[in-house]
From TrEMBL:
Residues 311-612 form the Ionotropic glutamate receptor C-terminal domain. This is Ionotropic glutamate receptor C-terminal domain-containing protein. Belongs to the glutamate-gated ion channel (TC 1.A.10.1) family. GO terms for molecular function: ligand-gated monoatomic ion channel activity.
Length: 682
């Protein structure tokens, strides 16, 4: 009353419970102030006719269809509702019993338990149920009382095999808040709860928090849509003896807000958010089985009944040209979609089975019945933000401005960026590994020869190791600064420098060849140059084309002798799949894309759609043929290896001969003599 009379609020969000909501509906209606509640679920509120009351929560009776569908599916002929003795518990029971009777399921008994019941009273009521033949129980209670009932039922054996417990969303919505001991007592319970769309948001909130968020968004959009500029109340003439309930003014903005809220429609965190006669419509319920945690086992929708999966609506572009990426075929007679094919579609179909859960989907063309498009690619992507589509699959480029209102997966095509690792391509991996091993080996051999007689190779152990490897690797650019004193070391270094010279010269030639092929360019190499010259081709053609990398590669694959592609100046991240912002599917699908692109499946898809058109040699084969392998240099490594090993043998023979007296000392043990020998060497 204070908010209406003194604060003169324009709209109310709340209250949380059905009882106070029941009271404030009439004052709100009289003052034309819309009231939007996100947690008042009592079916009794439906009977109160007020155009200014909006229930942004599901009516408790909306889950009756899901409960009776489960009972009908298993053919259970009797069921006993267990509910709390107050308005919350009693309001849903009439619709539940009517629905059970409609499927020929008897209700032989109704178990009513007071919210203030003691443990003894609960136990007494449960023992009464234990003596009955009925073994299907429907629990409609809040967690404070429901958790005590399940613990007692578990103690007396009423949760054993053969008993079926179905729980309404009063407890299911707050399941994660229950104590572990309560969850343990609920093993096997079937739960029903409103479906929270995972493609929209991954929030650590219960359904009440999600509904509160959606209700707040609905109010914000309604205020913007109504275009409110004034915030006054019209006072009405009332007598001085009038009570607070009679002294309300009338909001000037009420009718505009009423119309805006009534037409609100978006895909919220809880699914489709739309009011019909002031009541939020139920879209789907999820069926949960408590088994070492909550596990989803199915869904129920008013249209399809019980199903194991919910389908995503996947928007696909309708266009002309580049049909190898996406192609929507429409029957000219019926003007209905007959097939959706293409490279992007096959990639998506390959990615979905890699997800850790089942996802069903329908492709929905974004086009007109005559086969024309319904809008641009930006318009199509924006439909995900509006909630018309759950995702978009097609040749969609990942760019910054689009990422402000939708989420993109990792790209599954080549991006407009150069390969940062092209410098590794001139040599095959086995040649890189072999070269690295020989650098280390040569460094060790030089250290063996030099560390006893050369101060550059002496010092702490770390210094000796660093100097040896530095000396070896610096031979690549012939910049070694350390002197080599031993003739054996000089011999090994000379041979190794010869190998390194040939290796580096061959690497330089191969890399130059690769980069030269990549940078072969026409006379027009830049957009600015094209504009400056004002150049165009004959016969109404064009001098150059700017497009995405995948399109260019497809075109060049068909006409590789006529066109070439220059370095991209405007970099994009490639093609990706589109989902709503913050959708957990973005992360999961991205991981699945990596799994597919790293395997053979991706190459099979690319070959199926692109190789059939290509008259050019395979790029991977060309690069591989230009890469230098170990088979081209094994002779050089063999010479260097033999030279180093031969030098080591000569050094070892001379060293042993010089210190033969140590080995001949019979007074010391063999182990002691070896230790002395090694100490002399080091």
């Amino acid at each position: 009353l204070d908010l209406l009379n003194n604060a003169q609020v324009r709209v109310m969000l709340g209250p949380e419970d059905s009882m106070p909501t029941n009271f404030i509906i009439q004052p709100g209606n009289k003052s034309q102030v819309p009231i939007l509640s996100f947690s008042a679920t009592s079916p009794s509120l439906t009977s109160i006719r007020s155009p200014y009351f909006f229930r942004g929560a599901l009516n408790d009776s909306s889950q009756v269809g899901a409960i009776t569908a489960i009972i009908k599916a298993f053919g259970w002929r009797e069921a006993v509702p267990i509910y709390v003795d107050n308005q919350y518990g009693e309001a849903m029971i009439p619709s539940l019993t009517d629905a059970l009777h409609a499927i020929d399921t008897r209700v032989p008994y109704r178990s009513v338990i007071s919210p203030l019941a003691t443990d003894d009273q609960i136990e007494k009521e449960l023992y009464k149920l234990f003596t009955m033949q009925t073994r299907v129980f429907i629990v409609h209670k809040l967690p404070s009382l429901g958790s005590r009932i399940f613990e007692k039922a578990n103690e007396i054996g009423l949760m054993n095999k053969g008993c079926v417990w179905i729980m309404t969303d009063g407890m299911t919505n707050l399941l994660r808040t229950l104590e572990p001991s309560v969850i343990d007592s609920m093993q096997g319970v079937i739960d029903v709860r409103p479906y929270e769309n995972p493609s929209l948001f991954d929030a650590e909130l219960n359904i009440i928090g999600l509904l509160a968020y959606d209700a707040t968004r609905a109010l914000a959009e309604a205020v913007e849509k109504a275009g409110i500029t004034s915030f006054g109340f019209d006072k009405i003439n009332v007598s001085s003896n009038a009570t607070d309930l009679e002294a309300f003014g009338i909001s000037q903005n009420g009718p505009k807000l009423l119309q805006a809220l009534s037409s609100t429609r978006f895909k919220g965190l809880t699914g489709d958010y739309i009011f019909v006669d002031g009541q939020l419509q139920s879209s789907a319920f999820e069926i949960i089985n408590v088994n070492n945690g909550a596990r989803g086992v199915g869904f129920w929708t008013p249209e399809k009944g019980l199903t194991q999966k919910l389908k995503l609506r996947i928007g696909v572009p309708v266009k002309k040209g580049f049909s190898d990426f996406v192609n929507v075929t429409i029957d000219p007679k019926t003007q209905e979609q007959t097939s959706v094919t293409g490279y992007c579609i096959d990639v998506f179909k390959a990615v979905i089975p890699e997800l850790p859960y089942a996802v069903a989907y329908d492709f929905v063309p974004y086009g007109q019945p005559d086969g024309s498009s319904s809008g641009s690619y930006n318009d199509l992507i924006y439909q995900v933000f509006l909630g018309e589509f759950d995702a978009v699959v097609g040749d969609i480029t990942i760019v910054f401005n689009r990422s402000n209102y939708v989420g993109f997966t990792l790209p599954y095509t080549e991006s407009g960026k150069r390969n940062a690792w092209v410098f590794l391509q001139p040599l095959t991996w086995d040649l890189w590994v072999t070269s690295g091993c020989f650098f280390i080996f040569i460094g060790f051999v030089v250290w063996v020869f030099e560390h006893r007689i050369n101060d550059d190779f002496r010092g702490p152990a770390k210094h000796q190791v660093g100097t040896s490897f530095w000396f070896s690797f610096s031979t690549m650019v012939f910049s070694q600064r350390e002197r080599v004193i031993s003739n054996l070391a000089r011999f090994v270094v000379i041979v190794w420098c010869f190998v390194v010279l040939i290796l580096t010269q061959s690497y330089t030639a191969s890399l130059t060849s690769l980069l030269t092929v990549q940078q072969l360019q026409p006379t027009i190499t830049d957009v600015k140059m094209l504009i400056k010259r004002g150049q165009c081709s004959a016969n109404g053609g064009i001098a150059a084309a700017l497009d995405e990398i995948p399109y260019m590669k497809l075109l060049i694959g068909q006409h590789c002798s006529k066109y070439t592609m220059i370095e991209p100046k405007f970099k994009t991240a490639g093609f990706g799949f589109v989902f709503p912002l913050h959708s957990p599917l973005v992360h999961d699908v991205s991981k699945a894309i990596l799994n597919v692109t790293e395997g053979d499946k991706m190459k099979e898809i690319e070959d199926a759609w692109f190789k059939k058109h290509s008259s050019c040699p395979d790029a991977s084969t060309v690069v591989s043929s230009r890469s230098l392998g170990l088979n081209s240099f094994w002779g050089l490594f063999l010479i260097a290896g033999i030279a180093a090993i031969l030098a080591l043998i000569i050094f070892l023979a001379v060293f042993v001969h010089q210190h033969r007296n140590v080995l001949r000392n019979s007074e010391s043990s063999l182990l002691s003599r070896i230790r002395i020998f090694l100490k002399i060497f080091v």
